[in-house]
Design goal:
By secondary structure, this protein is α+β, with helices and mostly antiparallel strands. Helices cover about 25% and strands about 25% of the residues. About 25% of the residues are buried.
Amino acid sequence: MSYERTQEQGLSDLTLLGNQNTKYPTDYAPEVLEAVENLHQDRDFFVKFNCPEFTSLCPMTGQPDFATVYISYIPDAKMVESKALKLYLFSFRNHGDFHEDCMNKIMDDLIKLLDPRYIEVWGKFTPRGGLSIDPWCNYGRPGTKYEEMAHHRLMNHDMYPEKVDNR
């Protein structure tokens, strides 16, 4: 990729991509999130991330909780840079929060960074004490067809449960 192409795509402001001296945050760090320009703003498309190694801490016991986190969104002007997202998700490793709070916090931080047309975040946590918790949240830009889409997907979310393969 030429330097000119990098400038065109708005990648010159990125601090993590290609950086060999990566610092791994030791606690929740939304400030590591970075965005790149969406070069295909004229169409709707999903960007999906699967993070099968998500870890956070139970705020009550301090025990680790493990999950596969699925993030799917329809970008508008910006898309999340994947290395920054990886470091951000890693930052939950020592963070104490309930499963539902972690998933909503991830969604809120990505909405703040990207202002996406639509986004959903789903955490499939491994069981602890014989019980798994799988919080799912979504958002569609208010006043648009994406708000209607979010409502529809919420109302029909678990009609056809996906095969759970992380436990």
